[in-house]
Prior knowledge:
Order of helices and strands: EEEEEEEEEEEEE
Shape: elongated
Structural class: mainly beta
Largest sheet: 5 strands, mixed
Strand content: 35-45%
Oligomer: single chain
Radius of gyration: 21 Å
Amino acid sequence: xxxxxxxxxxxxPEVLExxxxxxxxxxxxxxxxxxxxxxxxxFHTNISSINRIEPNWAQGGDDIHVVGSxxxxxxxxxxxxxxxxxxxxxxxxELICTVPSMGSKASEIVQVASDPTHLPGGHVVFxxxxxxxxxxxxxxxxxxxxxxx
Length: 149
């Protein structure tokens, strides 16, 4: 897809195994040939995916259940890029992860990976449960049910 002279987008083909490939562009019908920049794209397979966490808030040191897919015995939980102190493999769809202590952090993205240098994007947010101090003000975290008569 052409956006401008320095911005194009393309769809990647489906792959069955992890590999790196060179990405080059060319102009159809032109005599300029192809680019030779040597930029690579890495295809990954069997990337873990998180559907939900239970509970979605807890204190540092507590265990939470991470539910998703493509988990393995070497999968580990990461909270905002920080490794969980303990990850227990239950099945390819469930892990039990110990929440790391994060000081004053209110929330973090939870990710699962076997290699901390290849963390997948995340969208499941975990919230730290903290007691109120004299200087804190209360906040609403959830309303159940969210609607009603």
